[in-house]
């Protein structure tokens, strides 16, 4: 169930008795009755189908109008197989609603860096860096224990370390 309210930062608020409620359901799957208002939290299950396709144009045509094109920053466009129009999808490193994508914090979610490195989340990506206080020998020892070849960098050279 969706509850509508004032826009974020708005000073206008509706009293509880004047709030507007809505929900999404497949056409014909729900018949409204005034008794439904007696228990707004009644758990009736209905199928929901969302079609986020933007009709009338394919990706190539839509890209020509920068004002109305929906698949801008951190999104990419594709043409669905089920009819006319185009859809957006989140670019790599982003998730959620493809029309309002959010950056994935890879450092929190996947912990992609080696234990000896510091992970920094970047927009749509991440970076692993070696703390300066760690010497090459410490890194080489930890990586050799993991039995994984890797590139180690010191201030003046790059070295391939093999276990």
From TrEMBL:
It comes from the Eukaryota. It holds the Pfam family EGF_CA. Residues 103-133 form the EGF-like domain. The keyword Disulfide bond applies. Keywords: Disulfide bond, EGF-like domain, Kinase, Receptor, Transferase. GO terms for molecular function: calcium ion binding; kinase activity. PANTHER family: OSJNBA0016N04.9 PROTEIN. This is Wall-associated receptor kinase 3.
């Amino acid at each position: 169930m969706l509850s509508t309210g004032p826009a974020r930062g708005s000073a206008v608020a509706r009293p509880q008795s004047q709030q507007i409620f809505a929900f999404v359901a497949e056409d014909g799957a729900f018949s409204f009755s005034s008794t439904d208002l007696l228990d707004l939290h009644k758990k009736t299950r209905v199928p929901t189908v969302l079609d986020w396709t933007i009709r009338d144009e394919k990706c190539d045509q839509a890209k020509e109008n920068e004002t109305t094109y929906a698949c801008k920053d951190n999104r990419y466009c594709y043409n669905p197989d089920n009819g006319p129009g185009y859809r957006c999808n989140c670019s790599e490193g982003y998730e959620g609603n493809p029309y309002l994508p959010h950056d994935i914090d890879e450092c929190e979610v996947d912990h992609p860096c080696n234990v000896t490195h510091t992970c920094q989340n970047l927009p749509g990506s991440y970076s692993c860096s070696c703390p300066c206080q760690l010497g090459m020998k410490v890194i080489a020892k930890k990586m050799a224990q993991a039995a994984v070849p890797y590139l180690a960098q010191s201030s003046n050279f790059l070295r391939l370390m093999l276990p």
